[in-house]
Structure prediction request, 719 residues.
Amino acid sequence: MAQFSRVSGSVGLITLQNPPVNALSAAVRQGIVDTVNKALQEPEVKSVVICGQNKVFCGGADIKSFRGVMTGPPLIPMIHAIEASTKPVVAAIEGIALGGGLELALACHYRISHTKARLGLPEVTLGLLPAAAGSQRLPRLIGITAALDLITTGRHVTAAEALQLGIVDHVTDQNTVDVALKFASSVAGKPLDARRISLYPCPPSDDTDALFEEAMQRVRRSARGAIAPVACVQAVRAAATLPYAQGLEREKELMATLFTSGQARALQYSFFAQRAVGRWSMPSGAQWDTVEPLPVQKTAVIGLGTMGRGIVVALTQAGFSVVAVETHEKQLTQAKQAIEEMLIRGAKRRGVTPEHDTITYSHSMEPVANVDLVIEAVFEDMVLKEKVFQQLSAVCKPGTLLCTNTSGLDIDHLASKTPNPELVVGMHFFAPAHVMKLLEVVYGRQSSPRAVATAMQLGKKMGKVSVAVGNCLGFVGNRMLKPYMNQAFFLLEEGASPELVDQALEEFGFIMGPFRMSDLSGIDVGWRIRKEEGLAVPDQRTGQIPRMQKGCRYSPVGDLICEQGRFGQKTGQGWYRYDKPGGRVARPDPWMQTFLNQYRATHGLVPRRIDPKEVLERCLYALINEGFQTLEEGIAAAPEDIDVIYVFGYSWPQHRGGPMFYADMVGLEKIMDRLEHYHQAHPDVPSLQPCNLLRKLVAIGSPPIHKWSQVMKTLRSQL
Ligand SMILES: CCCCCCC/C=C/C(=O)SCCNC(=O)CCNC(=O)[C@H](O)C(C)(C)COP(=O)(O)OP(=O)(O)OC[C@H]1O[C@@H](n2cnc3c(N)ncnc32)[C@H](O)[C@@H]1OP(=O)(O)O
Prediction:
């Protein structure tokens, strides 16, 4: 809806009304058409202001309506009518002007923004382009280079940057609507052609071809197969090279392809999934809207290795005071310096002053006594963590929430070492912890809903996408990674090279394939865990690590290369070779080829040609099958939880939605059939055997992803 009122006799005020973000639903568009007509028809009205209810201008087109039948007046003629208006129209921008919201503002003759407003054209993040003439107006207003930046990245700008770029005419920290009303009154009757952006020529650039070539290369490099950024460059190119009307046609054409694409569907699903994970629930029935988080102001981080340092930075940047504890004096000094540097760099990037004085460094636990919440981030060793938890239980005030940053250790076991297991939760951060957006909040059997609510809220305040998951080995993310990695190892045994496997998965859209990723994070990490699990241990009789363990196929290739001291980038050699220890550029290593040949010969394995399709199916479908298993067990509450974890923690390409969304797109029946096919060929690999939930979904006709919850409920109630 939109409301019309007349202010001071001669200014028409149009207020968009569609909380919370005044998205341009059919009713809002109809309201705008009606109220603009009214303003034009009323002779007393000499100028118009458009604003949004509740100090929010407009969050753009209604994303929810994209999947249904489009009704109501179309956006483009509506905003053209505004630009063509014979009475000046002023946009009063408060809160946000995003996507169609900014495009609406660009059709107005003047834009006045509050200092705290954010503006942008984030359509690309939804698999679209600014197709309400934004791709044609913005370059005409601010030039090609700046427009390309905003349109291809979708980044939001502050009002100050918008003013500097020329997107808005004036910024105020007063009541924006009042300022706009006064201004509108002052420009009544003035000529408007010079204010109509569609009439502007696109500002010329030195070498347009080179500029677009460079932009295209940049987006192709970073887009990893995403089509919207490419279309955005093409649309801006049309603005730079064609008359406005033809540019608009090109924009429409490009949008038509994007609008119905699977990528747009995936990215829009991902947008809502990120919000859905905030509405967490626990198997007990406790959920986000019925539980009050505990108040948290003072925090502590125990252990200042790489993870601990990142967590201190994230907490400090979110405004918490932090007691940073590291028992080794030298490590404490180094950590302090590293943390200060990270804070300075972060503050510079965000254009703010760094916060240092909210951190207290300590080599003892004493200052932790009066904090509200502790995050333990010591080495991933249960015995060490138990010791820390016992110390914390002795020192902390009653009611302190104890969190452990572990990537997979048993939360229940750790909780059992404290007198208040209900106050223990896992907080699985991803490295670097101050950068990576994902946080897995892991509840144990006894974790109280308030503890979970508190950890989830803390994550939100740190700017994380937090997902609440149940406790099991590896939680959701790392648990699903295991069958994926196993398939990668098996494929090496059967004839593939690390390059072949990585290339197939990188072409799918991962930033790095499993072997390059493993070189980066350190191959020895998994080796140590496998040794602790008793897997990477030679058989006393043969002296070799068995290739069958607990009745299942096991590949020791990763263990064997670790035995050679090849731990990945840090040692300069791993699955690839690097020019030096710590080097970043992975090169295929002839040593690896020889090693694999010898390994296969030793075990009588006849190498065969492996197709990239097989790599994708085996790695991805095994991972997806494990995802269904976590849903079946209730470890993940919903497919959105898994998808958000994979997109934000494991670099699953966002334009493919996440593993569970991808499974829905591929078709559950196909996934099940292919898993069965591979399981027949590898009966000693149980993770290739389709799990019950997947079978059940296929049996009832493969319902779409939003209907899986119902099936899951039934299945869980039958267990
Ligand atoms: C052939 C058709 C032609 C169409 C022309 C196409 C040209 C225009 C395209 C567009 O405009 S696409 C939309 C562009 N806008 C955006 O991408 C903005 C998306 N929203 C956000 O980034 C954030 O929501 C926000 C606006 C910055 C607010 O963030 P905040 O953290 O304060 O709140 P949220 O929890 O994110 O949102 C609250 C609530 O509102 C829902 N919502 C937000 N934006 C939209 C929207 N544009 N359409 C529909 N719904 C929206 C959001 O989903 C939340 O609701 P729940 O999911 O929690 O129910």
Notes: Residues 20-21, 23, 59-64, 75, 96, 98-100, 122-123, 126, 128, 130-132, 259, 272, 275 surround LOHRUJSQ (CB under 6 Å). The first strand starts at residue 2 and ends at 7.
